[in-house]
Design a protein that fits this description.
Blueprint (H helix, E strand, L loop, with lengths): L1 H9 L6 H7 L8 H6 L5 E6 L3 H10 L5 E7 L3 H10 L4 E3 L2 H5 L6 E4 L6 H10 L3 E4 L7 H13 L4 E3 L7 H11 L6 E9 L14 H4 L10 H18 L5 E7 L12 E7 L5 E7 L7 E7 L2 E4 L4 E4 L7 H16 L18 E2 L21 H14 L6 H21 L3 E2 L12
The structure holds nicotinamide-adenine-dinucleotide.
Length: about 425
């Protein structure tokens, strides 16, 4: 927490802080000046959806000085009561429409299943509330468009939880990328591997779709909207472009348990200049973990870990040299494709930290808030915007682009064809 406070406090005043703001204008609501401006005031916040992520947000909100949780809403009583225990005094609602009539609420945080994001966001904006909705933006392309159009017309603040835009290692990493540290970006590889079924225990069978919503297409876009959404956004920010064509393959390889969404996806996003994002996610093997890897002519950045490697640092460890010399002996005695053929075994690179002293390894197990991934900072930005009325810069646009691309990824896999980014879903913010 201290680190976070330090980061928030220093933004804009440390050497390089102003430059960081220049490349990430959405941070304007977290500057020391803005925090001073709202000092003593508290945004009156309500949560709609108090399951796993909703309770995580509650833990973060309790640490934000300019936030007060005044109401909670959930249609599943055990989750409502679990949240109520964390926020004594908050009003309880079972129907979000009733909550939206409450005049003592400035902003709502929506952490319900994806299938309901668009309807609740649209209703909340119409009811005159500021809105912070979980990613992804919406379940369908048309819902994304409807939310984006409503946002353009609304005078209310709207955020989507694209927390990597507020994560220090991603922010500083982006600055280094844009300053040319790893040379020209030539490609991107993102993956998310887990070994878990995504299932939750269901107390009674009729609650299966409600509780295990992630597994059913009516409510969920599967791995693409749940996981890839964050990663595709990072790639777009890195190159400052939107991919033009999308192809992929998706399957249910292992978890053949009645679910409808893929448990294995491979999607290629191609930018107009030929650069590609190679996206892979599998939830029956976790060997490779999760990473957002940006490949440059002079080096590679792994933003999730917060490290970069330079091509010139490729020095081999002693043991690797030994293994290589052994391989070479075997290979030179076996006739191969040609006399100069050598296997390009991955070399040893020296990792450099993006943020001094920090390498980030996150097992994804933190359910109680504050794990320095930007979720607390973006929430703090939203709460301060509920007081100042300052609109988020680029956050809705980034959420729109990432969500639409993930939904197009699903479409490409389902229809087994390459999809060109449809004209109808383009917005002026997009550069191809
Ligand atoms: N930004 C991130 O990194 C991140 C991480 C985890 C989850 N999420 C997102 O958060 C959202 C919630 O995920 P979760 O794991 O907390 O799910 P969850 O099932 O644990 O919680 C969802 C809650 O919403 C409630 N709910 C459903 N419909 C409702 C309605 N109409 N009105 C009121 N309450 C309703 C459910 O009863 C449940 O308690 C999803 O969109 C998910 O993608 C984002």
């Amino acid at each position: 927490m201290e680190d976070r406070r330090e980061f928030l406090k220093q933004l804009g005043c440390v050497a390089g802080g102003a430059a960081l703001l220049a490349g990430a204008p959405w941070l304007s609501s977290c500057t020391p000046e803005r925090i001073r401006e709202i000092s003593g005031e508290k945004a009156r916040i309500a949560l709609i959806g108090t399951g796993s992520r909703g309770q995580y947000h509650i833990h973060n909100l309790l640490l934000i000085p300019h936030a007060r949780i005044v109401a909670l809403c959930d249609c599943y009583e055990p989750n409502l009561q679990a949240a109520a225990a964390l926020c004594p005094g908050a009003k309880l609602y079972r129907d979000y429409r009733k909550l939206l009539e409450d005049k003592d609420i400035d902003g709502v945080i929506i952490s319900t299943p994806l299938g309901s994001h668009a309807a609740i966001t649209l209703d909340a904006l119409s009811a005159g509330k500021h809105v912070f909705c979980e990613k992804a933006m919406a379940r369908t392309l048309d819902e994304c468009k409807a939310v984006y159009d409503a946002y353009r017309k609304s005078d209310k603040v709207l955020y989507f939880c694209m927390q990597r835009m507020f994560d220090e290692k991603y922010l500083r990493g982006m600055k280094l990328l844009h300053d040319g540290l790893i040379g020209e970006i030539v490609g991107m590889r993102c993956h998310w591997f887990r070994n878990a079924d995504w299932r939750r225990e269901v107390p009674s069978p009729e609650l299966e779709r409600q509780i295990n919503w992630r597994l059913y297409k009516e409510h969920s876009g599967g791995l693409m909207t749940e996981l890839a959404c964050h990663q595709i956004e990072v790639c777009n920010l890195a190159v400052g472009r939107i991919p033009q064509s999308i192809s992929g393959m998706g399957d249910i390889v292992y978890w053949k348990d009645g679910r409808e969404v893929y448990d294995s996806v491979n999607v290629i996003y191609r930018y107009a200049d030929g650069r590609k994002i190679n996206y892979e996610s599998l939830i029956s093997n976790k060997f490779n973990g999760m990473e957002d890897q940006i490949l440059g002519k002079k080096g590679t950045m792994e933003l999730a870990k917060g490290v970069y490697y330079l091509e010139e640092d490729n020095s081999r460890s002693g043991i690797e040299c030994l293994i290589d010399s052994m391989k070479e002996k075997v290979l030179t005695s076996v006739p191969l494709a040609g006399p100069s053929w050598r296997p390009e075994v991955k070399g040893q690179y020296i990792p450099h930290n993006i943020v001094e002293g920090k390498i980030s390894v996150n097992g994804g197990q933190n359910m109680i808030g504050v794990d320095n991934d930007g979720s607390d900072v973006i929430l703090s930005a939203f709460c301060s915007a509920c007081i100042t009325g300052e609109k988020a810069v680029n956050v809705v646009e980034e959420a729109y682009c990432a969500t639409v691309l993930c939904l197009l990824g699903n479409k490409a896999m389902e229809e087994q064809r390459t999809i060109l980014f449809p004209e109808y879903y383009k917005i002026p913010y997009m550069k191809f």
